[in-house]
Each structure stands twice: as C-alpha cells, then as structure tokens.
Amino acid sequence: MMRGFKKIVGLVLAVSVVCSMMPGDMGIAAKKATLKTKKVVMLTGEKASIKIKKKQKKAVYKYVSSKKKIAAVSKKGVITAKAEGKAVITVKETLKKKTRVVGKVKVTVNPVPVVITPAPVIPTVAPTEEPTPEPTPEPTPTYRPISEFRDNDDWSVPQNFEAQDGSVAGTAEYITYPSTAIVEGRTINRNAWVILPKDYDESKKYPVVYMNHGIFCNEHTMYNCHVQNVLWNAIANGDAEEMIMVLPNGCANETGTDNGLGFNVVHYKAYDNFLNDFEQCLKPYIDENYSTLTDRANTAICGFSMGGRVTLHLGFALQDTFRYVGAFCPAPGIFDFSDMGVTDVGLFTRDEFTLKDEYMDDTLVMIVKGKNDGTVHKFPKEYHDQLVANDVPHMYIETMGGYNETGDGSHGDPVFKFGLYNFVSRIFKLY
After folding, report:
1. What is the pLDDT of residues 319-354, one digit of tens each?
2. What stretches of 290-332 adopt beta strand conformation (E)?
C-alpha cells in the first residue's frame, strides 16, 4: 500500500515539473523586451541611442536618468553626455496598465581629451641664414556621429530650395569615361554629369555624392530635373557641406539605353550591373580626375525610383564604400517580388538586408516615400519594415513633398527633391 502511494506521489511531481516547462510559458518569457544596450562610455557632447530588443508594439517605453546633469535622456532613448561622471538610465515598459523595469544602462561620461602640442624647437642658425619653416601637418578630420543627424526629425525645407539662382551656382561638366565592366573583353564609353560647387578649387579635397535616375532614363534626367540647384542652394544656405555630385547612367548595358525593354527581368538586370560599372570604372575615374576625398566617410549614394533600388543595392552591398545611403521612392526588387507583370527573386533575402556590426551605428540610411505614390506603392514601406525587423537604425518618412507639405505626394520631383535636400543636409558633417 505504501509502495503504491509513493508511485502516485512521484507521478504527480513529474507531471508538475513537465507542466512548468511547457513551451507556452517559455514563449511568454521569450517575448519580453530586453536591453540590447547595457553599458555606454561617452565623451562629453556625444549622443548615443539605447537599443531595446523585442519591443512590444503597444507598449510605452520610458527612460529615466539618475543624474540628468551628467547624462540626459530623451523620450526616444537618446542619451546626451552633459558632464564627466557616471549615471544610470532606467528603462521602463508600460503594457496593458502594467509597468515593469526592462533594465538599466550604465553610462560613463569622460571629458574630451585636451591635446597639447609642444612648442616647436627652433634650431640655432647663423645670422645670415633663415630657418626653414616646418610644414604644418594636416589636421585629422573628426566626423560627427550618425545618430546626431539620424535622430533629427526636422524634415522642413526652406522656400525656394529648388530654385535656380546664378549667384550660388557652381559648374556642371559632361564627362565620358571608359568602362570594361559592361561586356567582357570590351571597353565601352559611358557618360555622366559632374556637378561642382561654386568656386571649386583643385587645391582642396571634396566629398562625393552619387545620384541615380529612374527607369527609362539616363544621365541627363536628373540634370534636366535641376537637382544641381537643390544641392547648390543647400550649400549656400549653410545646410550642406561643399561637395561634388555625380549623375551617372545607371542602365549598365552595352548601349546605355533602355532599348524598348520595358518592365522585365533583363531590363532590371542592366541596373543591377551598375554595381560593377561603379566599383570598377566610374568611381576610380572620378577620383583620378577630380579633387576628391575617397574614403567611406566622404562617399554617399542616393537615387529616385529605380535609382532608389540601385542606391539600396549598392549601399548595402558595398558597405565599406558608403557611409550615407538615401533612397527616394525606391522601386521593387530589393526582395523577391511581383509587380508590373514581373516576378523575380530580388537582390537580398530579408535577413541579408542589414548592416555589418561595425557600421550599424555609423551609416545614415534614409528612405522617403510619397504619401500618394501609386507607382512604387507598398515597396518603400516594406523596406522600412524589414529594417525595423532587423534592428537597423534608419530614417523613414511618408511625405507630400514640396514646400511644407504642399505637394501632391505622388511619384515625382516634389517628393525626391524634398528627400534630396534633407539628405545632403545630413551628410559629410565634421565637428
């Protein structure tokens, strides 16, 4: 009798243990938001964003600093280093009227180091000789963190931001460069416009932004849309740094034209092939023939429609080349898709559409969509949603375009010029 009772007790305990490990409970625990950022070391004046994994859609997150005079934190979780010292940011989640602490972020703020340059030693020379002055070394540029511009949600543009103004205009040069990346074993001459800032000086070095056109277009399209005026006005307004803009032909086939191809995979592959033409031929030609800064921090890419697709393709495939990526009304094709009678596998899987760890917080990714865009319709938001799912920091806006939202939000100039002004105003920034 006692032996039977022990068996029953043992069976009940075993069932209790199994039930406590049921997947349902494990699933509930796995869904809780946790901190991706747990420790931050900053210099005074810097900004950093707190990252939360597995955010709940309907939850509200609150950030509280233990010492606001050392480390202040915004409603969006952006920390600003105020003064030397240590602070703790507590992150709370409110969901269905229940509040819990997600975690705590330890913040250490160090002062900006002061570099003291020793006084040069002046050699003793004969009275009749003059000492040869030592050359002054070029200062190493210090670039502002991407988060400073990515977290800036001011999308306003000034009046007349796209107007033609001869007093601020630079110059435009039409170039021909040799390409060996189109047809194997052959060299094909291709063309592009190079937009130079006012008072371009070959003794200086300039950063470069490449801007890509839409489908059925060529290197003349963006130039004839006067995107150069947007850039020159932004520079004159003090919103953009001096830079060179290159307007290439993104249809990288033998003739450089659409040839009546229409909407089909063969046509789209010509635009995909621009990656090879850009990397092997166009960029080396620009860097050799113009006074350019050639590193990642001084190279940007942007584009409209099919040019937006080209931009995302090159921006995410050549992450060592581009620090800034701006896609305005980007066309389908980044992922597998069906549109306009075309079905294709796309350029990336959804999991591949991400940034390397070293560039995750050092790349400005911007996607702009017209609110009433019936041409590329869902695709820009689809790219935005996937970046959110992959925890890639980026900027996204749906706009009417034009001056203070006075456009019609369709697939055209007001939207992509609005995007372009905001893009060039956020790139190549130094302290």
Report:
1. 999 999 999 999 999 999 999 888 999 999 999 999
2. 299-304, 324-328
